[in-house]
Amino acid sequence: MRAGDARKRARLTPTLCGKQLALNDIERKRVANTVAAFVQKHRPAPHIRPQLDIGFRVSGQSVEIFEIRPRWKKPDVKMEHPIAKATFVRSTALWKIFWMRSDLKWHRYEPLPAVGSIEKFLAAVEKDEYACFWG
């Protein structure tokens, strides 16, 4: 075993299942609280939310922000449209930023491909100087 491999494994947080994750429970909760505050600030007025709302999810080491809208022909069915995604890389301690293009694939956000904190990711999404996230 190489010394670099051992250091890399030591930085990862094991779960009860034996899988390796980049965020532990405390970090995941802090990230979720930070993103929840951002989403709450940017949600539309309550009377508009049945037609357009904003949500998020924290899954593994990634955070995804998305729009929630009713389906065109089935308004009782809600659909999600991705806005932005950030993935934490423990080895570099950076959040990689992604946006979804019209090909429905995540692409690196080239003006700012990685940031050092979830707050800086949210600031980039809010600023959206290239109209990649909010259109």
Which key features would you list for this structure?
six-stranded antiparallel beta sheet; alpha+beta; 135 residues; two-stranded antiparallel ribbon
Q: How would you characterize the largest beta sheet?
A: 6 strands, antiparallel
Secondary-structure element string: HEEHEEEEEEH
Helix content: 25-40%
DSSP E strands, number: 8
Task: Count structural domains.
Answer: 1
Task: Give a structural overview.
The chain has 135 residues and is α+β, with helices and mostly antiparallel strands. It has one domain. Helices cover 27% and strands 33% of the residues. It is built from 3 helices and 8 strands. The protein has helices at 3-11, 25-42, 118-127, and strands spanning 13-14, 20-21, 53-59, 62-70, 78-89, 94-100, 106-108, 114-115. The strands form 2 sheets. Strands 3, 4, 5, 6, 7 and 8 form a 6-stranded antiparallel sheet that branches. A hairpin with a 5-residue loop joins strand 6 (94-100) and strand 7 (106-108). The longest helix is centred in the first third of the chain and has 18 residues, at 25-42. The N and C termini lie far apart (48 Å).
